[in-house]
Design a protein that fits this description.
By secondary structure, this protein is of the alpha+beta class. The protein is built from seven helices and 15 strands. α3 packs across α4.
Length: about 425
């Protein structure tokens, strides 16, 4: 019994020494490590955080805006805001580029997380924080400033998007639309083109649209000066005005697979603080079965159900076009700027800008192309997103690694392809 007591005492003493040592090590780490601990890392085994620094202000056409990104309980991937980390020309490989201050490369999730899937299915939209860094945001503003004279105001009464006197109307100045953002050359278009297959966004594009997703509309920048007009509510799987089912915009979820026939991708280039106006949404309306009550599309009635999400420059809002959305009048002194894209599943097509440069012509292989400058300086992954609509099994390139820009071709068997050629005298049926 005496031997057993001594042995137990020895074991207890050893455990106490180990505990004290572990506490000293933890204390040393907490005082020496410069890495902030973020509570917004939801279960995502492939994501690691690089150190985050305070960002500097971004020079704008009208005024400057700080990019102090917050989390707002949305899942995010923390990107370094070190101004020396990358330039816009190196953006497509930023995931494996090391800055002068950090030795850990940024890593990205490989698939849409369970939390992201839940939030998108619940609300019909999701905010992805810190997709662009301050350097990339600054590059976008510099490009916009160089082409600001090309912006077209929606001044004609037939182009106005809101009813005068409604919260969507603002105080009257029209919205400004600036196209051609993929046609400004390598330096000015690089960041805008990177959205096509951005490593942070590809898992969500795959999760919402499926593999082989494609660009559906010509992307553009929309701008508002203070008081600028927004856009009355529109869209809906069941159209919010007519009450008719809208297959072109429809949201669905079967057996855990989300699909949206058309996905909006709003890249925020300035802060949209609470009350500033801009993009607004009716959460959950992608599952609504009825048209909206009178006055709601103009924000006159039931406005408490219309939300303007707060976002920071560099955030991206992904929203199903089956979710009723619009824009409030713009109240900030800073000019509103955001780049709007729309993507679709492999077999869906709403727009038709991929038919020759002027949007006209027959659907022949030579005419199924976007404007020629779209294809400049793209990697294979980005180029795959410019494919016209057709099924994956018909030799469609699917993105494998958005960081490396690689794809794989999905094919039927050689024998089936040979048979089709013999029967139809063409490569594809």
């Amino acid at each position: 019994m005496h031997y057993i007591n001594n042995k137990a005492l020895l074991l207890s003493t050893s455990m106490l020494l180990l505990l004290q040592a572990s506490r000293r090590a933890a204390a040393a780490f907490s005082t020496s490590s410069g890495l902030p601990l973020h509570n917004n890392f939801l279960s995502r085994s492939t994501t690691t955080a690089a150190s985050v620094k305070e960002s500097s202000s971004t020079s704008l056409f009208v005024s400057s805006v700080a990019n102090n990104n917050n989390n707002n309980n949305q899942p995010s991937s923390v990107a370094s805001t070190n101004k020396n980390q990358t330039s816009s020309s190196s953006f497509s490989t930023m995931a494996t580029t090391l800055s002068a201050d950090e030795q850990v490369p940024q890593e990205y999730p490989l698939e849409m997380s369970e939390a992201e899937r839940y939030l998108f299915d619940l609300n019909g939209y999701i905010i992805i924080r810190n997709v662009l860094t301050p350097d990339q945001i600054a590059a976008c503003h510099e490009a916009i400033d160089a082409h600001i004279d090309e912006a077209i105001p929606r001044s004609d009464p037939t182009l106005r998007n809101a009813v005068e006197g409604s919260p969507m109307y603002g105080s009257g100045p029209p919205r400004l639309d600036l196209g051609g953002i993929f046609e400004w050359g390598d330096t000015q278009s690089n960041v805008f083109k990177s959205i096509l297959a951005h490593p942070r966004l590809v898992p969500l594009f795959h999760g919402i649209l499926g593999k082989g997703y494609r660009l559906d509309h010509l992307p553009f920048v929309l701008m508002n000066n203070k008081g600028g007009e927004g856009f009355q509510l529109h869209g809906g799987t069941v159209d919010c005005v007519s009450g008719e089912y809208n297959a072109n915009l429809a949201y669905s979820c079967y057996n855990g697979n989300i699909r949206s026939a058309l996905l909006g991708c709003n890249v925020m280039l300035v802060d949209h603080n609470p009350g500033d106006g801009g993009f607004c949404v009716v959460p959950g309306s992608h599952k609504s079965n009825f048209k909206m009550p009178e006055g709601m599309v103009d924000g006159i009635h039931h406005c408490e159900y219309i939300q303007q999400p707060a976002t920071k420059a560099g955030d991206v809002v992904l929203f199903s076009e089956g979710t009723v959305h619009g824009a409030m009048g713009w109240n900030s002194d800073t000019q509103r700027r955001c780049a709007l894209y729309r993507f679709a599943p492999a077999t869906c097509g709403y727009g038709r800008s991929y038919f020759q440069n002027d949007g006209v012509g027959g659907a022949t292989p030579s005419s199924c192309t976007w404007p020629s400058k779209f294809y400049d300086d793209l990697n294979d992954a980005q180029r795959a997103v410019l494919e016209p609509p057709y099924a994956n099994r018909l030799d469609r390139p699917n993105i494998v690694d958005p960081v490396a820009g690689t794809v794989e071709i999905t094919q039927r068997s050689d024998r089936k392809r040979q048979h089709d050629k013999e029967v139809f005298k063409t490569k594809y049926f």
